[in-house]
Write a structure and sequence with these properties.
Layout: E1 10-18, E2 21-29, H1 33-42, E3 52-55, E4 69-72, H2 74-82, H3 89-111, H4 116-126, H5 128-143, H6 152-162, H7 164-167
Parallel strand pairs: 3-4
Antiparallel strand pairs: 1-2
Helix pairs in contact: 2-3, 3-4, 5-6
C-alpha cells in the first residue's frame, strides 16, 4: 500500500456557503489537502462553476482531477514579513502596513454588508492602488538588486511575487477571500 509509507498527519479545512449558511468541514489524516479536496469534489453536483480554493502556496493542495480557481492566503504572505521584522524593520513595516490597509478595506466591506460584486468593485477602487504600489516596490527591490534574493527579505518578497496573481484574486473574482483564516 503506497499510503503506508507516508509520514505525517494533515488537516484540511473546507468552508462552503449554502444560502446564508457557512458549512465547515475538517478532515484529519494521511491525505494532503488536494487529495481531500479531490474526494469532496467527486460528490459535488456537476455543471457548477469551479469553486474558489483558498490555500497556502503548497503544490499538494491542488486537486488532480477537478478545476478550481486557486487563491493564495494573504495572511500567509504577510506572515513572511512579520517573522523577519527585527532584521528588516522599515521594509517589513512598509509591507505589513500596506497589507493592513487592504484588510481595513475588507472590514469596511463586511461592515457595510456589500454583496460579492459590490465588494469586488470596492476593492478594485480602494485596494487595487495599494496592491499595485506594493507589487511595484517588491519588483524594484529584486530587479534593481536593492535586496539580496536569498536574504530573509528577498525570500519574503519572492514568496509574494511568485504567488501575486493568486494572492490578489479578491481583486479579480467576486467573493474571493483575502485569506483562509476562517479555517
Amino acid at each position: 500500500d503506497p499510503d503506508s509509507t507516508r509520514k505525517g498527519i494533515f488537516t484540511t479545512g473546507i468552508v462552503s456557503k449554502w444560502h446564508d449558511h457557512q458549512i465547515a468541514l475538517f478532515m484529519t489524516g494521511g491525505n494532503h489537502a488536494g487529495e481531500n479536496f479531490n474526494e469532496l469534489l467527486k460528490r459535488r453536483a456537476t455543471g457548477l462553476s469551479p469553486p474558489i480554493q483558498m490555500c497556502d502556496g503548497a503544490s499538494r493542495n491542488k486537486s488532480e482531477d477537478f478545476e478550481a480557481i486557486m487563491a493564495n492566503c494573504l495572511a500567509h504572505a504577510r506572515r513572511q514579513f512579520v517573522e523577519i521584522i527585527n532584521s528588516f524593520p522599515d521594509e517589513c513595516a512598509y509591507m505589513i502596513e500596506g497589507i493592513g490597509k487592504v484588510y481595513h478595506h475588507d472590514a469596511i466591506a463586511r461592515e457595510d454588508k456589500l454583496s460579492a460584486d459590490e465588494r469586488l468593485a470596492y476593492h478594485q477602487q480602494q485596494s487595487a492602488p495599494i496592491i499595485a504600489e506594493l507589487e511595484e516596490w517588491c519588483r524594484k527591490q529584486i530587479n534593481e538588486k536593492i535586496v539580496e534574493p536569498n536574504s530573509g527579505l528577498g525570500k519574503a518578497i519572492n514568496y509574494m511575487l511568485n504567488r501575486w496573481e493568486k494572492l490578489t484574486r479578491f481583486l479579480q473574482i467576486p467573493g474571493a477571500p483575502l485569506d483562509n483564516n476562517i479555517c
